[in-house]
Design goal:
By secondary structure, the chain is α/β, with parallel strands linked by helices. It has one domain (18-156): 3-Layer(aba) Sandwich (Rossmann fold), CATH 3.40.50. It has helices at residues 3-12, 19-37, 51-59, 111-122; strands at residues 14-18, 43-48, 67-74, 86-89, 99-107, 127-137, 150-156, 160-161, 176-179.
Length: 183
């Protein structure tokens, strides 16, 4: 995407959650996560690339001992619709008997997050929890009613970007959550 085109996407986008709203949601999630697993010596996995910004900000608010790793599995790449799950980086850590927290940018249909949770369980994790910055509100979840254990914001079924979410590889760094005009 060319610079001018990318600028136009942001200028025309609808801001669904400004920086203060997103940061308040992350702070609230950190409190809930701390109460839930703060004494369990968890393994926290950032789901790349989308989870990078959200996970980084969440981690600085989790004031208890934990280990951090990353996973990279995607169904989207630079597309706007999901395809088959593609692993780019898998587990490097022993999960046997561990509490695992998967941190991702968005819960759309849930295919990727469910597959990652199943992979953690198959590697011996005792407990697998999920945290997402955004849950898209629609009826297309791969498992009806599927929800993350910790959710920052519930947003309408639009194509969103910012705080780790991208549009055509761009604007993960946008200082809020925006919806692309017309999508």
């Amino acid at each position: 995407m060319e610079y001018d085109q990318a600028q136009k996407v942001l200028e025309e986008a609808d801001c669904l959650a400004d920086r203060a709203t997103v940061e308040a949601a992350i702070e609230r999630m950190a409190g809930a996560i701390t109460a839930s697993i703060g004494k369990k010596n968890p393994m926290v996995f950032c789901v790349m690339n989308g989870g990078l910004i959200f996970c980084g900000q969440l981690l600085t608010r989790l004031l208890f001992p934990l280990e951090v790793g990353y996973l990279h599995a995607t169904r989207y790449g630079r597309e706007t619709t999901g395809g088959d799950l593609e692993w780019k980086a898998q587990f490097q850590d022993d999960l046997v008997g561990r509490t695992v927290l998967l941190v991702d940018d968005i819960l759309d249909e849930g295919v990727t997050l469910l597959a990652l949770a199943d992979a953690c369980r198959s590697r011996g994790a005792r407990e697998v929890l999920t945290a997402v910055l955004v849950d898209k509100l629609h009826d297309r979840k791969s498992c009806p009613g599927y929800r993350a254990d910790f959710t920052g914001l519930e947003l309408p079924d639009r194509f969103v970007f910012g705080y780790g979410l991208d549009y055509d590889g761009m604007w993960r760094n946008a200082p809020g959550i925006y919806a692309v005009k017309g999508l």
